[in-house]
């Protein structure tokens, strides 16, 4: 089994910073794309930032220049540094990873963390 465990959410005032971390563990052969998605009540989960194993990044337009994703391939971890936070950044942030397991690495599966709440106040 593979698990993603997130940490680092919380309550912060607008303009502040938070750092989210995600660690993947279990029967991992290779971790492909890792990233972060955000969900707010009544809305679909949306992409915030992703990074491929080779380091190519994708950011939502709303966070470009403020958020930075990073990862450590050897440790199967990813982080999201969030600066200049705005109230509209509020939501539950989910870590995502495409992982090939030791049992079947040719067919990677999508995994999600349990989510961590980020609340940005005025």
Characterization of the model:
By secondary structure, this protein is mainly beta. 0% of the residues lie in helices and 60% in strands. It has no helices and eleven strands. It has strands at residues 2-7, 10-13, 18-26, 28-39, 46-51, 57-59, 67-72, 77-82, 91-101, 109-112, 116-121. Strands 2, 4, 5, 6, 9, 10 and 11 form a seven-stranded mixed sheet that branches. A four-stranded antiparallel sheet has the order 1-3-8-7, with no helix packed on it. A hairpin with a 7-residue loop joins strand 9 and strand 10. The model has no long low-confidence stretch (mean pLDDT 97).
The stretches of 5 or more residues where confidence is low (pLDDT under 50) are: none
What share of the residues does DSSP label as strand, in percent?
over 45%
Compressed to H and E, one letter per element, the order equals: EEEEEEEEEEE
Tally the helices: 0
Helical/strand content category: mainly beta
Count of individual beta strands: 11
Q: How much helix, percentage-wise, in residues?
A: under 10%
